Each structure stands twice: as structure tokens, then as C-alpha cells.
Request: fold
Amino acid sequence: MRKTAFLTLLSHWRRHPFQLVTLVLGLALATALWSGVQAINAEARASYDAAADAVGGSRPVIVAPTGDMDEAQYVTLRRAGWLVTPVVEGWMMTDQGRVRLVGIDPLTAPPDVAAAGVAVDGGLGAFLTAPGRILAAPATAARLSSGDLPPVTATEGLAPSLAFTDIGVAQRLLEKEGRLSRLIVLDTQPLNRPALSDIAPELEFRPSGGQADLARLTDSFHLNLAAFGLLSFAVGLFIVHGAIGLAFEQRRPVFRTLRALGLPARDLTWLLVVELLVLALLSGALGVALGYLIAAALLPDVAATLRGLYGAPVEGALTIRPAWWAAGMGIAVAGTAVAATGALWKIARLPVLAPARPRAWARASQSTLWLQLAAAAALVLVSLVSGLFGSGLVAGFLMLGALLIAAALTLPALLSGFLALAARTARSATAEWFWADTRQQLPGLSLALMALLLALSANIGVGTMVSSFRLTFTGWLDQRLASELYVSAETAEDAAALVAFVEPRVDAILPIWNVEAEIAGAPAEIYGVADHTTYRDNWPLLARLPDVWDRVAAGDAVLVNEQLARRDGLWPGTMLPVPGGPPMEVAGVYSDYGNPLAQVLIGIDALTTRFPDVERLNFGLRLDPAEKDALATALITEFGLPPENLVDQNALKGFSIEVFDRTFTVTGALNVLTLAVAGFAILTSLLTLASTRLPQLAPVWALGLTRADLARIELGRALMLASLTMVAAIPVGLVLAWVLLAVINVEAFGWRLPMHLFPRDWLVLGVLALLAAGLASLWPALRLSRTEPAVLLKVFTNER
Amino acid sequence: MKDKVYAAFLILLLTPATALSQGFAGMGQSADGFAMPDPETRFSFPADHGPHPDFRIEWWYLTANLTGDDGRDYGIQWTLFRSATASGDDTQSGWNSPQLWMGHAAVTTPDAHHSTERFARNGIGQAGVEASPFHAWIDEWSMQGPSLKNVNVTAQGTDFGYDLSFDAQGPFILQGEQGFSVKSEAGQASHYYSQPFYEVSGKLMLPDGEVSVTGSGWLDREWSSQPLTADQTGWDWVSLHFDDGAKLMGYRLRDASGGAYAVGTWIEPNGETFPFPNGVLQAEPLVITDVDGREVPTSWRVALPARGVDVEIHAVNPQSWMDTTVAYWEGPVRITGSHTGRGYLEMTGYD
Reply:
């Protein structure tokens, strides 16, 4: 009995293959976007962990609070009985971007440092002695093709995006001769050793090293992606809901017959559950596979972004992780369950003698609308509370999520109200029928329209955010990169010769000297700034004391970047402890986009007083832009400056914008995908409706409207509803953009951006939305216009 | 993993780990670019107490038989190995130096054996040897004094340590022919001298507390670039302090075919030396002990008929296994038979 019943139920799909495709595809798409995003996040996080574990793992470290330490400190500690191993690391420029170079000592490295084991197996002598060896994971090794590097050995199993070499080789390549970044404290220590403060009071013991900072820094980025994935999944669920609803609606006669033949309601429900489970697993598998493709396509850009923006060690190669396969399947099944609960609930309570005819969707009851409005109000409240009292990224995203769902829930009431108003303007019977019929269809379409609203407002919100950011960023770059040329020397002698060479040819030489230090307990950069109109005229200050530049030049005040100011409340007037001397007053705050680190600007004299060892190799040159090319040529041909030591302002700007654009490639791609999913949702909803609406259309047809008229009306209705949704999406999208700019960005990056409006983008998006809705309704409308009159006539003769 | 990382140290770091088959700890490799031992070489002290970077390997090997104020027998070892991954030390400094250092330290009690090891790069000051005033060190371990005749020796591990002073009561002893010590029929050789006349006093730090000790110590200094032939698989070495003041150093280099090359030096109480050629020293295992899954002979019959020596030596602690990257057996022994006394036994190649 059950087997026969099950086969009977399944036969529906054989007769309606398109419905099957819709259901499977909808669920697969939703799962694909979700699991693709998860795969990207998992890959990046695994890379951070691998990088953190690559040298020392969670062992304690000894660091110098002011930055690097002298390698003599290492020997001092070892000879006092502290078993530590040295690490020197830094960025190395290659033709294909930056690579993090890690110098290790394979003799003292802890046994779990994979690179040390590889170094030994591959011949320690070659690793230790000139020219040395560089070991890197294959993807990273491929990026290390510069001419003057030691031989590179591609090695499976090393942490991605890191290049390992002997400590001496690393010091040379990083120009850190005699310097070490940190000492890792080994697990076993001898019987007796003096306190660290007795032998090296200037060093600091930290219970755990690692790259926790990186995870914190990039959290926002990953949360962003995850939110997008979730949004896509939610939109995808609307498709599934539509398809399941249709399938159940059409099979009502079958259900009734099966029940009448003696199949208990329980069994029927369970059979349907099994059917859905099979479909969910099938679609889930398809979705995860699709998700893998999406992730593989997007990951190179994501990796480039993470490297460029945060210096995070991620490569563009994706590995398959069982965890997200399982998660993808799980979410497909869970999504199906959510989408099908309502339908299953009805089947379980279906009376045996229920009418067998397909039932048109009931008109929305006033109470449903009120319920939705009440839920929306509650969500707005949640959003407000988390916005006002919450802190951190999660609160920000909670605020966003609640706001979006509230907007979606408000949409049916809004549309219903609009249609009621519009109905009053109707002057003809056809128009009155159009408005009334549209209102009646609203419940069936509202889920699809909500999906459209979500997709559109996400598009508007994210688009506004990205465009505002880009506008601000380019303007800021113009201010910030005021010098026409940027040059750097190899040694102090070269620097002196360079200055002497350019001095008569330029308007000003601006030193760009900096040290890495610790400010307010976190790593920071301290830059020296010359007293020059370049800064007075251009530097983008957000807040300032009077005479800010005079005071900075005098050396008794500093400027801090916005990230640092927001993080530690360091606004003008507060005092900031700066290493190497007494605390200094914060005299101004400047915007510093794209920099994950805290930054402090002090007078150039104060810098050299406080940090006498600061490297004085980099300079910005101010000159007439017309003479820029001539000077660049002279520097290379006459002075002999290596071309890579000279950067043109335009090149630098171009590079920065390129990094910026790459950052949001992923966002753009996800935007398009989400809109596509929403269009698909409308299509399925309309198809669902179309097949059940014949009984309503047949009388109208019988009264004299042609099938072509009916089709045109259907098409027009879809376009009108899409336009209305688009109009509603604009304010929602703008609120979303505001939250992203003023809340999420501040939490995630530490800077607040001004919001700009881009109405032309809305127009484009509106056209896209109409196109999507039009395309989605075109097919049902065409089918309607070609419906045999006999079919329409049958409505009057059949069961009804 | 640890083994994988470090095994290469004495494997001499030049080739991948397959070199293990080439004699114990890779000492059977060729000596390209390195200086070779020369029978015409005459030592000059104190300069030759310092390192000889032109040679590939070198060691400062100190052992001592001690008696505690608790009446128990103890033994200690302090060793510094130098190894060059490439020749030409003088041209490269800092981290680029091809010279590496390895330290071994151990304390043996009748019921426990504590051992540990250290590794260090040359050229940065983490380890090294200076001839005069004498100073050999790796990390916080050191062997230091106005001269090698009079040094203070310290080392420690996670659960043991020692602080001992060594005071030489006799001359340095040149092994082999004027310090040229032949290791095989094929003529493999090293430069080799000893100081077997140390009086030792100081204290041991053990898990149960400190113990004051006195006793006698023995220093071996040896350097070469290829001391073993490829088919020599290990050695058994003894340094014996007889109660009548005479000393005996002897070793047996085993080869893969089961044969051995055994030589040594008889040392009179006044420091007069009598090296003896291959085939004179008799050595036969008496007791085989299971040491961490390996079969190691921990009691021997040693006979040197020309000197009327026919003794049995028994390990104070048969489990004196040096569980270091390059592992071997090294511990104090008691002597019974024609002569009595104490000494040290070292056995390699029993992995």
C-alpha cells in the first residue's frame, strides 16, 4: 500500500518535470550561495590558523615592545638558560605582490614547525649557507619568481602565503640584518633560569603569540560574506516554498483519493516527508557542488583582497573540507523543512472529504496583514535596541537583519494599501476587476515580492556603501598622495646622495620615515612628518585643535588616524603615551582608509629624537608635475636609482584603486547572484498562480476579454508589482547603506564614511528588476494567451 | 618529528637522510674541501684546545666517575660537538657560518639516567670554544677556567644539573702516534688527545635534591674530517681509571662484516704513554641488556695481556641510554678482576 502510494505521489513529478527542476534548482541555488560563501570563509580561516601554527603555534613569545629586537638578545637569553627560538618576519615585494617571509632557525625550532623538518630533510647545509633556500607551499612558490631570490622549493603541507627560509637569509632579504621579530619560548625549559626582567628588562613575555589579531581584523570581512550568503539562502528558500506549495496544491486530488482508499493521514504525511528529504538531499548535493564552483571562482579575488587589505596569508586555491559538505547538506534539508512545514501541516489535517479541486489562493485576510505588521514593528524595535545599546559587529548585523525582515514583512500591507487606494480610481469594470484581482493574488505573490525587496534593497544598500566608499577613497587618495614622486634609497649613504641629487631639482623633499611600535597596547606605525604646506593644505583632518600643524612641527603634539581615535577614544585634547619620551597631546585626527593598523604622526624632529635608529631612506618629492617624467628619467639614468625604488604618484593611486576594486568584486558578484535568485522566485510564484487561476480567468474571458488581453494584463500586473517593490526598496536600501557606513564600517575597520546618493544606479537597478519580473511573467503570460478555448470552457463543465 | 628534524645533525647535514647507512651518524662520508688529519702535525697548546674549523667534526668530551656524600656512585657527561656543513668557515660570519654545535649532558645514578641535548648556530655567540683563557659553551652550559687544566663545568636539563670543578693532576696525553689516531686498516684517522688526570669536586642537582660529589674525570679531544670508513657501523670505547693510578683507553670499531679494529693507549700514573696496535686489546661482551628495545652489552671482559690486565667491567646503571637525536649508550662502569677501579663506557651503533 505504502509503496503504491509513494509511487503514485512520485508520478506527479514525472508529469511535471519543470516543477521538479524548479524545486531542485531553487534549493540547489540557495545551498550553492550559502555553502560557497562558507567555503571561502572556511578556507581563509584555515589559512590563518595554519599561518599562526606555522611558527610556534600557541607557544608564549618574547617580544620587544618597540618592534624588532637585536639578535644579541637571543644569544643573551639562550646563554642565560632560556630555551627560545628566533623568528624574523616581514613583507617581501615580488613582481606578483607582497609575500610574508618568515625566517626560522631549524636547529632550535620546535619540532612541530613543518618548514624546519623540510629544511632538514632537503639538506640542512644548503638551507643554512648562502645562497640558502626558500620553502613555500606550491601556490605561494609560484608567486616567488623574482630574479635575486634564493632557489625556491615548492613544498606541500606548508602554511599558505608564507615563505620560509633560514633566519640569516630572511634578515638579508628583509633588510633586517641583526634584527629579530620575536622569540618563541619552547615547551621544555631547564631546571634553573633567571627571571626575564633580570637579563633583558626591555623585552616582554607574552603568554601566547599567534595571529589572533588577524582573525579579529578580518572578522568583519567574513561576517560580511556570511551575511550575504544567508541573504541569498533566504531568497532561495522563497523559491523552494513556492515550488513545494505548487506541488502540494496540484496533488490535492491525489491526496484525497489516497486517503479515501484508506491510507492514514500519518502515513501520507510521512511519505511526503521522505519524498522531500530525498529531493532535499539531491538538491543539497547539487548545491554544494555548485557552491564549490562559486567559491573556487571567487576565492582568488577574496584572497588577493585579504592579502592586500589586511596582510592575511591566504592563497587562491580551494581545498575541499568535509565540514562544509556536511553543513551544505544540512542547510538544504533544514531549508526544505522550513519551506515545507506549512504545506505538510495542512496535508496532515486534510479532511478526507475535502473538495478535490485545486483551490485558488485565499484572499489575504486583514488579520494576516496586521500580524505581519505587528511582527515587523517588533523587529524594528529589535533593530533599534541592538543599534542603540548593542556594540560590536554582531549587534550591527543583527540590526541589519531585523531591519530587512521588518521591511519585507511590511511590504504586503503596503502593497495591499496601495492597491486599495488605486482601486478607488478605477473608472471601468475591467480596471476594477484588475485591481481586485491583483489584491487577491497578493498573498500568493507576496513571498516572491519580499524576496525581490530583499534582493533589491541589499543591492541598493551595498551599492551605495561601495560607491560612497570609493568616492571618499579616491578623494582621500588625492589628498594623501600629494607628492609627485616617491623615492627610496638602499642605504643611509645612498639616501644622502639622493637628497643632494634631487635638492636643486624639486620644490621640496618630504621625508617618509617611520618606525613600528606599540601604542595603547597594540601594534602601530609612527610616521615623522615634515613641516610643509603639502601637509597643511592636503592632509585629510577629521578633527583638529587650533594651530595643529605648528604644534606637530614643534614636537609637542601628534596626529592619530581615525581607527586609533575611535578604538581608544583618542580625540583632540587627550594625552597619548608615545615610546621614547613623555606623552604627547593628540592635536588632530585624520582619515586613513585601508590601513588595518593604528598610526601616529609626529614631527620629523621628534621622530628622530625619540627613535634615533629610524631608517631614513624614503622620501616624497614635490615638484612641478610637468617636470616629473624628466626627473624620474634623470634619477634612473643619471643617478642610477633602481627603477623599483621610484614610484610615480599616479601609479601608486592606480594600485590603491585596483586593490579597492578587487576588494568589492566579490560583493558585486554576490549582488548579481542574489538578484537572479529573486527573479527566479517570481517566476516560480507566477507559475504556481497561473495554473490555479484558470477558474478565475475563465469567467472574465467568457465576458469578452480576449486571451491576449488577459496575457497583457498579467504581464502589466507583474511589472507594476515589481516597480512598487523597487520603490519600496529604495528607502530600505538607503537605511541599509547608512547602517553599513555608520555602524558596520566603524566596528569593522574603524572608520566612518560619508554617505553619497547615486540615483542613476537605482534607475539601472529598477530597469533590471523590471526586466527580471517581466521575463519571469512573460512565460506564464504567453502560456495563458495560447490556452485552448476548450480548456477555459472546461472550467464551467468540470467539478465546479 | 623531532627525530626527523634533528637526526641530520651528526649525519652531517650535507645530504638527505639516506646517509644513515654510511656508518654511524654519517661519519663515513667523504671530506671534500676539508682539511685531512696529517701524521706530521704536532699539537701546540693552548691553541689546539680551541676549535679547528677546517676539519669537519670535532669534540670536547668530558666524563667523570663520582662518589656522592651519600656513598653512591655517579657519573656525568659534558660534551660539545662541532660540525661543519660546508668548508670555508673564515669567509662567512653570523648566521651564514656553516658551523653548527651540539651539546650533550647527562648524569647517571645507579637507578636513573638523565640526559639532554642542545643545538646552536655558530657565528652569533650562542655556542663556541675559546682556547685561552679556556671557555667552551653552548647556551647556559659552560666549561670555563684560566686554562683547560682547571675548569668549572656546568650543565642542566629539565630535571637535573651539575656544577663541578675539574683540576688536572697530570699532563695531556697524546693518543695514537703523537696524537695521530688511526681508525681503520684503510688509514682513516683523527687528531686525538686526552686529559685523564682530573680531580673533580662539586655538586649534582637531582630530582631528590643536591648531592656533593668528588671523583676523577677524563677529557677527550678529537677532530677529523672522516674518522670512519663507510662499512664501520659503530664503536665500543672505554676509559678506565685503575686504583693504582694507571689508565687505559681502548676502543673497538665494528664493521658490517662482524670484524673489528681495536686499538688503545696504556697510560702510566706519571703520564707515560704506550699506544698498542690493532689486535692486542681483547674485549668480549658478558651481559646483554635490553635497553629501550635494543640489545646492548653492558658488561665486558677486557684484557690487555701485555700489561697483565684481565678485568670485567660492569655498568653502574645498565640503562645509561643517551636518548638524544643521535642516540647511544654512555655511562660509568665499575672494574673488577686483575685490576680494580672505575671508568666510562661508550657504545654507538646499537640502534
User: Anything to note?
Assistant: The interface with chain A takes residues 1-2, 4-9, 13-17, 85-86, 92, 94-96, 98, 100, 116, 119-121, 124-126, 137, 139-140, 156-161, 205 of chain B (CB under 8 Å). Confidence is low (pLDDT under 50) at residues 1-26 of chain B. The domain at 56-347 of chain B is CATH 2.40.370.10 (AttH-like fold). Chain B has one domain: 56-347.
